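Folding Problem: From Residues to Backbone Shape
Fields: amino acid sequence; protein backbone structure tokens
RECORD BEGINS BELOW THIS LINE
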Amino acid sequence: MTESEIIALIQTEIEKKDWGFTEQFLEIHSPVGIDNIIKIENIITANNEATVYLPIAGERFYLTFYIDLIKKEIFGISTEPYISVYFRATSENLSSDELKKHTKLAVTESWNKGAIRKTGKGNYGFSSIIIDITKTPDTFETKLNELISELENDRDGIKKLSELADGYIQVFMEFHNGNGLIGGPNLSKEMIQKLSEMNLSIDFDLAVSGKQFIS
């Protein structure tokens, strides 16, 4: 299936609401549209199947369609959380430039102690660098695996940052609070081993948002 065919299939479902979940979800939230055509945030294909992420107006979680690419039909619909997974090193004594010197990896964001916070309220009490390579919607496992693979390109530097500063992996997940059940991430034994080899801890910050389903 082409992207245009996938969009047309989902557009038809949103208009006809053949799936009960579609009707239930559209009673409380709306997908983002451009000129009355749904916006697609990401399409992930594997094993003749596609996972399609649709952004929701005013929210960060996604309406997600699962499509059989051979039969050209939808076989599942759900909501998936917004997920951010990145490496972060912070220090009250070292500047962001000094932190950067300890890794050859590309730093995507940084600030120095005393800088105004993003919220505009108060100042940072520490310097920080962030390495974030996974911007598009995907599963927690995929995002974490991709980040770990990137960090393994500079194991010595990442371990050094863990020794000299507070270096760790930060995970933020925002779920749709549709029925109060959100689930949660899972860490495999292999992933725990990789984190241990780089002396890294992992911090989880979970949140819910959106409207609950109408009973």
